[in-house]
Amino acid sequence: MLPTLALLLSCQLLGEVAARGLGLSVPGPVLGLALLIFLLRVAPALAEHLRPTTGVILANLSLMFVPAGVGVIGNLDVLSKDWLALLVILVVSTLLAMLTAVGTFIGVQHLRKGPTP
């Protein structure tokens, strides 16, 4: 379990270092995930070594939301003051994310089928 966690955290750390060091606007964890995907493509057998640990992490993923919940409770004054703006931002960003996902799916589906006669 420790080597797997070390690999996952190392990928995230390298992504963070690259993002900050190169002044990129991409978040470090996203670069770390890209690095992990690259490693899994280069060494597919690595996935089997990661699977047990990542399965446990995913099974307990709900625990990762506890700090976010505590942050919300800690900032109730901000929420009570700006609730309407936050609600609008949440709804609009959710709709944009959903439309982007649908557009990406349709685009990939179109690319896989090729041009239609």
TrEMBL record:
| Taxonomy, superkingdom | Bacteria
Name of one Pfam family that matches: LrgA
Q: Primary place of residence?
A: membrane
InterPro entries registered for this protein in UniProt: LrgA/CidA
Q: How does it sit in the membrane?
A: Multi-pass membrane protein
- Which GO terms of the cellular component aspect does the record hold? plasma membrane
What parts of the sequence cross the membrane? Answer: 29-47, 54-73, 85-108
Assigned keywords, A-Z: Cell membrane, Membrane, Transmembrane, Transmembrane helix
Q: Where in the cell is it found?
A: Cell membrane
Name the UniProt record assigns to this protein: CidA/LrgA family protein
The organism named in the record is Sulfitobacter sediminilitoris
